[in-house]
């Protein structure tokens, strides 16, 4: 008996267990490890919900980082171990079956937000401690200002024993006293600091307001201020601090001294920089990742008037084949080599290369004239891909397709620019690859419309937006209506009535063609029954329904057809299924088996678009077909008299062959009386086309059949 698979709550608990085991040894707490795990479980749930949210928002991870500090996980290793756990196990245990590349990107941003929340809460906690020390120092300020104050010992204990740096200076900026912690921060002796002036502690990265706030304080206009400030140590290295400066007044309220409290944040800053780098750079190639690229693109597109941009969107051709044949390790080495080559292409100011994920890269150039620059950048990229890449003793030829978008800043959003580049790249790939194409707004609009139709298809079937028109099949001998072909249409809310050429390929690509085809068959058979009930023998004798290649391979085809005919109470000989010739070229017995079963039941099978597939005519004997539908390309010349004699001979030969095999011949696309007469003389059996009637609602076909029966 096998155990049931873990549910989401079990996987979440497992993640919390791993997290607690990593962090518990470096946490100052009176809880047991299981109790500590229970404390981390809701934090793990917050991270999981943020990872899987429909609209991604990393701010929940900031709350998690703050909660770690509140839980006394203040040791630097606690943050490091937490980030390692999130990086290694959050997507694994909480990601489910979602898109892994997007989940990894989200996970990186959650790590950055967690670290930011941890740092912010730790900073606030430290500030609270600083204020406590400052209050103690202020209570003892009389010791500095007056030798008569009675609490010298208490002040000294606070001053010397504090873990943060403390300095006292006069209003001219001369440093009078420093404690041991501050001396250690600067890595020198107390004498090297005492006597110096505060004005000597300038740094190139000082914010503009730092010295303005200082001047306001020494003038007595401000009681204190808090800034982040860098200092130079004697050895030239940078010391980053959270600096709080307070004004000390004498008993009469006159400014007398300034008190500085310094917290060393150098290591925390380096950690944040490292986390920022990891969150914005690809771990495999070291290139900027999607996050950093979008930040850069947003700034470029927000630039002022006169600025332009050019973007190259590269996708390697056939990369999946390399991964499948040589393994992912070889694929990774190939990506690293390609990244190095691309990096060498973008060396000019304003140019950058990033990896979006998988085998997709982007190159960006900016400036006042990017029309020429982006073309040159794309050409350089194509050139560096020419040289083979040697991996595991093999030389791999690398090809790529590039979509280029170029234009002025400020007109489009980053998402719109990248979507246009992606569409253009796939246009280059569909044209054979190993090339680059320039974005075309009209082509973009068509692709966006096609995508919109694809996503709207499932709901359209549920909402009943599809309907069927019927085109009559007319007997060429006596002109009687012998049947009708069912042609599905889509009444789209925005685009109006769409023909099958607009949505059938999309339905085949998405697999929706199976339920859509079943619906068309059901509606058509029901309509055939209504015609027969209303008109008896005067109505259409047969309904023709097109069968997609996807439906042909669906295991439920035969049973669905049988069920539909039985529910409608219609005999199988009232149905004809049309299959395109191209779908049956080279078909094996397994593919033909369902058609044979349907034919044995009495369902007619028509070979549609006959003559376009270049199939061997001898194969007709093994196909379970009873009707050939001759493609209109063979009969177009017959619309005028006299017809092309070559086309006449071809049609005559096909009709003769079909009749010798006991097959009926239907011609589609008949538009003139001359064409109909010529086809009748050649021996064709039935025809359809605008000469007889355009596709229309079922009632109109009923009227045509009624006229035929009474005429």
In a nutshell, what does this entry contain?
This protein is an alpha/beta fold and 711 residues long.
**What is the end-to-end distance?**
75 Å
Gross geometry: elongated
Largest sheet: 8 strands, mixed, barrel
Unreliable residue runs = 1-5, 142-150
Q: Which structural class do the helices and strands define?
A: alpha/beta
Binned strand content: 15-25%
Q: State mean pLDDT (0 to 100 scale).
A: 84
The tally of helices reads 25
Strand order of the largest sheet: 13-14-16-17-18-19-20-21
Question: How big is the Rg?
Answer: 39 Å
- Number of distinct beta strands: 21
The proportion of residues forming helix, as a percent range, comes to 40-55%
What would you note in describing this structure?
The protein has 711 residues and is an alpha/beta fold. It is built from 25 helices and 21 strands. The strands form 4 sheets. Strands 13-14-16-17-18-19-20-21 form an 8-stranded mixed beta barrel, surrounded by 5 helices. It has a 5-stranded antiparallel sheet with strand order 2-1-5-4-3, sandwiched between helices. Strands 7-8-6-11-12 form a 5-stranded mixed sheet, with helices on both faces. Helix 1 crosses helix 2 and helix 18 (513-535) packs parallel to helix 20 (557-568). The chain is elongated, with a radius of gyration of 39 Å. The relative contact order is 0.05.
């Amino acid at each position: 008996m096998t155990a049931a698979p873990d549910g989401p709550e079990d996987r979440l608990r497992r993640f919390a267990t791993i997290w607690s085991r990593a962090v518990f040894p470096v946490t100052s707490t009176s809880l047991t490890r299981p109790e500590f795990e229970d404390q981390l479980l809701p934090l793990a749930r917050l991270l999981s919900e943020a990872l899987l949210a429909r609209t991604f928002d990393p701010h929940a991870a900031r709350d998690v980082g703050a909660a770690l500090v509140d839980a006394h996980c203040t040791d630097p290793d606690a943050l490091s171990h937490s980030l390692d756990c999130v990086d290694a196990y959050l997507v694994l245990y909480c990601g489910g079956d979602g898109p892994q590349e997007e989940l990894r990107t989200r996970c990186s941003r959650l790590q950055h937000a967690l670290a930011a929340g941890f740092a912010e809460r730790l900073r606030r906690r430290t500030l609270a401690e600083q204020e406590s020390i400052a209050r103690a120092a202020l209570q003892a300020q009389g010791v500095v200002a007056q030798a008569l104050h009675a609490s010298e010992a208490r002040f000294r204990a606070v001053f010397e024993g504090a873990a943060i740096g403390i300095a006292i200076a006069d209003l001219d900026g001369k440093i009078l006293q420093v404690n041991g912690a501050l001396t250690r921060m600067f890595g020198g002796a107390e004498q090297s600091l005492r006597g110096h002036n505060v004005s000597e502690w300038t740094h190139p990265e000082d914010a503009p307001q730092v010295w303005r706030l200082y001047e306001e304080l020494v003038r007595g206009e401000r009681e204190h201020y808090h800034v982040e400030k860098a200092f130079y140590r004697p050895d030239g290295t940078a010391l980053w601090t959270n600096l709080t400066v307070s004004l000390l007044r004498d008993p009469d309220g006159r400014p007398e001294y300034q008190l500085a409290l310094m917290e060393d944040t150098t290591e925390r800053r380096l950690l944040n920089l490292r986390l920022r780098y990891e969150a914005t750079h690809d771990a495999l190639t070291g290139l900027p990742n999607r996050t950093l690229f979008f930040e850069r693109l947003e700034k470029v597109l927000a630039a002022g008037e006169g600025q332009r941009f050019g973007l190259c969107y590269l996708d390697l051709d056939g990369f999946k084949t390399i991964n499948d044949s040589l393994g992912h390790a070889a694929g990774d080495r190939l990506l690293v080599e390609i990244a190095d080559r691309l990096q060498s292409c973008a060396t000019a100011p304003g140019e950058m290369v990033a990896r979006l994920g998988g085998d997709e890269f982007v190159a960006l150039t900016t400036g006042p004239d990017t029309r020429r620059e982006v073309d040159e950048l794309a050409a350089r990229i194509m050139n560096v891909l020419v040289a083979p890449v040697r991996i595991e003793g093999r030389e791999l030829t690398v090809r790529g397709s590039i979509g280029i978008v170029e234009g002025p800043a400020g007109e489009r959003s980053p998402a719109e620019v990248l979507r246009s580049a992606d569409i253009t790249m796939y246009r280059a790939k569909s044209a054979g690859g190993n090339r680059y194409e320039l974005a075309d707004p009209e082509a973009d609009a068509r692709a966006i419309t096609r995508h919109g139709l694809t996503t709207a298809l499932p709901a359209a079937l549920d909402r009943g937006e599809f309907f069927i028109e019927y085109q009559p099949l007319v007997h060429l001998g006596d002109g009687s209506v012998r049947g009708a072909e069912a042609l599905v249409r889509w009444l789209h809310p925005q685009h109006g009535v769409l023909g099958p050429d607009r949505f059938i390929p999309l339905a085949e690509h998405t697999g929706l063609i199976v339920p859509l085809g079943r619906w068309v068959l059901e509606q058509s058979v029901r309509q055939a029954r209504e015609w027969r009930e209303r008109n008896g023998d005067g109505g259409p004798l047969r309904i023709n329904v097109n069968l997609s290649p996807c439906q042909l391979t669906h295991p439920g085809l035969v049973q669905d057809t049988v069920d539909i005919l039985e529910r409608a109470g219609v005999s199988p000989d009232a149905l004809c299924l049309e299959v395109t010739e191209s779908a049956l070229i080279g078909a094996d017995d397994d593919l033909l088996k369902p058609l044979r079963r349907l034919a044995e039941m009495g369902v007619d099978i028509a070979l549609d678009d006959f003559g376009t597939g270049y199939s061997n005519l001898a194969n007709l004997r093994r196909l379970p077909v009873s009707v050939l539908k001759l493609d209109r390309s063979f009969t177009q010349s017959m619309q005028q008299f006299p017809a092309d004699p070559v086309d006449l001979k071809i049609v005559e030969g096909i009709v003769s062959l079909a009749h010798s095999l006991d097959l009926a011949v239907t011609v589609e696309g008949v538009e003139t009386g001359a064409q109909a007469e010529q086809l009748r003389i050649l021996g064709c059996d039935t025809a359809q086309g605008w000469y007889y009637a355009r596709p229309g609602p079922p009632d109109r076909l009923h009227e045509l059949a009624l006229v035929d029966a009474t005429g």
